[in-house]
Amino acid sequence: MTSTTVVHKPVRWGRVALHVGCLLALLVMLYPLAWLLATSLKPAEEVIASLDLLPSHLEWSNYETALDGVNDVSIWRLLGNSLLIAGGAVLGNVISCSLAAYAFARLRFRFRGPLFAFMIATIMLPHHAVLIPQYIIFNQLGLVNTYWPLILPKFLATEAFFVFLVVQFMRGLPRELEEAARIDGCGPFRSFFQVVLPLTRPALITTAIFTFIWTWNDFFTQLIYLFDPDKFTLTLALRSFVDASSTSAFGPMFALSVIALLPIVLFFLAFQRFLVEGMASSGVKG
After folding, report:
1. pLDDT digits over 65-87, tens only?
2. Does the keyword Transmembrane apply (predicted)?
3. Number of other CB atoms surrounding residue 58 within 10 Å
4. What is the Cα–Cα distance from 108 to 163, expressed in whole angstroms?
5. How many CB atoms lie within 10 A of CB 192?
6. The pLDDT of residue 286 is above 50
7. What is the C-alpha to C-alpha distance for residues 194 and 145, in angstroms, rounded to an integer?
8. 252 Cβ neighbours under 8 A, 6+ residues apart
9. Which CB contacts under 8 angstroms, 24+ apart, belong to 65-70?
10. Is 43 exposed, middle or buried (0-12, 13-18, 19+ CB in 10 A)?
11. CB 59 within 8 A of CB 40
C-alpha cells in the first residue's frame, strides 16, 4: 500500500483581502441602483418618510402611472423622441469625428498643428459658455423647439474629446497598410473607408457608447431647446412628476427613472461585445 501526502497550500490573506475589498466596493457602487429599484416600488408615503431599503409592500401602480406617460404624451412617444435624439447624436459623432480625426492623424496640410491644438483647447471650454451663442444662431434659423439643435452640431465634429480619442487610436495604426492601398490605386477617401475605418472600430464603438449615454442623460440642453410636450424626451418627462405647487409623484418618477435606465444598459450590453472583439482583433501593429 502506498500513502499519499496531501499538501495544503497556504492561504494568501492578501488575495482574500483584495477580493473582499472588491466585493465591498461593488456593493457600494450597486447600492444606488438597488435603492432606485426598491424606491420605484414603494408607496407614496414611504418614499420620503422611510429610510428602509425594502418597501413594506410592492406598489406596482407606480409603473402603471409611469407607463401612462405625462402631459397626455404616451411613454412610447417619449421613448421614441429620446431614441431619435440619441441615435442622431451617435451617428453624427461617429461620422464627423472619424473624418476629422483622419485628417489630423494622416493628412498633411497647412496649420495642421495649430488647428489641432485649438481643437484640444476647446475641451476645456465649458458647455454653458457656448450655449447662449448657439441658441441665438438656432433661434435666428428658426430651429428652436425642434430636434436639430440637439443633433446638427454632432455632424460638425464639435466633440473635441472624441476627435482626440480617434486621432490617438489612428496614430497607432501601421502606415504600411495605407501605403499598400495607395500603391493599389486607392485615394485618401477610399483608404479611409476601406482600410482605416474598419481598424478604428474599437474607438468608434467607444465614441458611440459614451455619446449615447451622455445624450440620453442630457437634461439642461434639451430643456433649453424643447418647449412642446410632444417633443419631450424621457429625461424632460421625469421633471413633470415634480411640482413645487402641489403633491409630487415621487413613486412614478422613480419608476420612470428605471424605465429610462433600461435602454442605456441594453445599449452598453449590445455593443460591449464588439468593443472587446475590436480591441482583441486590432493587434496588427508592428
Report:
1. 888 888 788 889 999 999 999 99
2. yes
3. 13
4. 17
5. 21
6. no
7. 39
8. 62, 63, 65, 66, 241
9. 65/249, 65/251, 65/252, 65/255, 66/252, 66/253, 66/255, 66/256, 66/259, 67/259, 69/237, 70/229, 70/232, 70/237, 70/240, 70/241
10. middle
11. no
CA proximity to 257, closest of 88, 24, 37, 102: 37
Mean pLDDT calculated for residue range 151-165: 92
Tell me how long the chain is: 286
pLDDT band at 248 (very low <50, low <70, confident <90, very high): low
Determine what percent of the chain is predicted with pLDDT higher than 90: 27
pTM: 0.83
Place of cell 447600492: 31
For residues 242 and 237, give the distance between their C-alpha atoms in angstroms, rounded to a whole number.
10
